[in-house]
Amino acid sequence: MSQDHSELILQFDGGSRGNPGPAGIGLTLRTPEGRLIYELGEFIGRHTNNVAEYTALLRGLEMACELGVGQLIIRADSELVVRQIQGRYRVKSPDLRPLYQRAIDLLRRVPKWSIVHVYRDDNHRPDELANLAMNRRGKVEYRGI
Hints:
Blueprint: E1 7-16, E2 21-30, E3 36-47, H1 49-66, E4 71-76, H2 79-86, H3 97-107, E5 112-117, H4 124-136, E6 139-143
Parallel strand pairs: 1-4, 4-5
Antiparallel strand pairs: 1-2, 2-3, 3-6
Helix pairs in contact: 1-3
């Protein structure tokens, strides 16, 4: 059965308990109508919060590219990551530069995309997935594709 993934919404979140500390990521890919296509919560080891945020973005972008998305709307509550991807903030951290560059490289594969900052209340499910992954020190994944 063929699925149309021409337009998707990616929401992501990353967190760490301690900075650095045990870290997890969460992300969802949905259609504009709200149908869940993919979600992931994954424990990623000991990292900073910002590395976790970027890792979540990268996992989401990789899946969106795998699905052949034509238009991607990215929503996240990490002001730092959003503003860096928008080009409004410089990437000063040497730990974040390669993650930022990988994100930009993946975004070049997406014909049309935008990224917006949302408040934490509007990013509930990715946050929940990141916390679940940290609690379990494991991975939860759903593919509705």
